[in-house]
Specification:
Keywords: Cytoplasm, Hydrolase. This protein has 382 residues and is α/β, with parallel strands linked by helices. Helix content is 28%, strand content 27%.
């Protein structure tokens, strides 16, 4: 599309403008305005500066907005390829006062443990239909449980997902999910499981959602955490529930630091799990020196990944990986795929035009779950 014919540029050609004309423009087009592979962000208000803040690698951050002369309308246009989905906020400066907030002209919002952000979806992106409640899908059940952990020296809460039509005389696969509360709250994982099992995309399975107390300490290759997962949680669940007694029917899952926790647990206890599901895993490493740029929290991550890269092993047979191409972790994730394959694991790797966020991870759930736990006709229950 010719940038000179963008809606905001056609508006500029009509200057000077009164408030009513701008009202009609915003009401007609909404915000951001998506035209082909360009997105135009808008803001109305008095400010010394207005900027778009985001975490999209490859685009200027912040992205400065320009005021249309003699109006209170600000605009900034950038390239946004088809299928993209990005999260952002707006930042204003008035004198020495800065404020950051969600786009007041955009009702589309994504949530995370850190708060909320506005969402800009390019042409071709759609929220998967299996993310929303399907009245025809029988709901599974979330059961609150807890396990006294000697390794962690505390009571560790666990939320268990039992699929619809759960029957104790059958045997079920097991998926253990790091940051379990966040997957439930921000990635709609219970609804996704209900829908995918109903559609026969995914086998009925038991899912254990676990949450850390100190994520930055327990997730980057932490021996007590790994021992809890492999030597306490899995055996305890096997005693309480009718699980398939086969590593190939067990998988470990996590995003970001939870991906590191999943991999490092499997490396410490090879053969306990048959599969891993890693989403935007923080697999940061250095090829020379120690300057990884991630701060002290990444020191144990880099030490673990450097050691693994030097001597790769195959703690599981199959590994599903996903990552957003707009996040800084895309380079280490891409780099680790051949390392994992060289160790002998079967790897399926997918990328999305998205960033490091929960809705990106939500949107990849069907890809990963249906590959790791394919429809029930492919499982033989005992």
């Amino acid at each position: 599309m010719n940038q000179g014919r963008l809606a905001v540029n056609r508006l500029r050609e009509r200057l000077p403008l009164d408030g009513a004309a701008i009202d009609r423009f915003v009401a007609r087009h909404g915000a951001p305005i998506i035209e082909g592979e360009r997105a135009t962000f808008l803001f109305r208000g008095e400010a010394d500066e207005v900027r778009v803040r985001h975490r999209v690698v490859g685009l200027p951050d912040p992205l400065p907005m320009k005021r249309l002369p003699d109006t209170d309308l600000w605009a900034a246009t950038t390239v946004l390829p088809a299928g993209s989905r990005v999260e952002y906020q707006l930042e204003t400066r008035n004198g020495e006062h800065y404020a950051t907030f969600n786009d007041p002209l955009n009702q589309r919002v994504a949530h995370s443990p850190m708060g909320s952000s506005s969402v800009c979806a390019a042409t071709g992106y759609q929220v998967p239909d299996w993310v929303h409640h399907d009245p025809e899908a029988r709901p599974g059940e979330i059961v609150e449980d807890a396990l006294h952990s000697k390794s962690l020296r505390r009571e560790q809460p666990v939320k268990l997902y039992l699929p619809a039509r759960y029957n104790p005389v059958l045997r079920y696969p097991l998926l253990v999910v790091h940051d379990g509360d966040d997957y439930l709250n921000y990635a709609a994982m219970k609804t996704v499981l209900d829908n995918l099992i109903h559609r026969l995309d995914v086998a009925p399975l038991v899912v254990a959602f676990v949450a850390p107390r100190d994520r930055l300490r327990e997730y980057p290759n932490h021996a007590p955490h790994a021992r809890f997962i492999a030597r306490e949680l899995v055996p305890a669940l096997a005693e309480r529930l009718p699980l398939i007694d086969d590593p190939q029917a067990r998988a470990l899952m996590g995003s970001s630091f939870g991906g590191v926790a999943s991999l490092s647990t499997a490396v410490r206890y090879p053969g306990v799990f048959g599969s891993l599901f890693l989403q935007s895993a923080s697999l940061v490493f250095t090829d020379i020196g120690n300057d990884h740029g991630g701060g002290p929290a990444f020191d144990p991550v880099v030490k673990f990944v450097n050691r693994y890269r030097a001597k790769p092993t195959a703690p599981v047979e199959r590994l599903f990986m996903s990552c957003g191409i707009y996040e800084p972790l895309i380079t280490p994730n891409r780099s680790m795929v051949p390392v994992f394959r060289s160790a002998g694991m079967t790897v399926k790797y997918v990328e999305a035009r998205d960033g490091h966020n929960w809705e990106d991870w939500r949107d990849r759930l069907r890809d990963g779950l249906s590959w790791l736990f394919p429809g029930p006709q492919k499982f033989v229950y005992e």
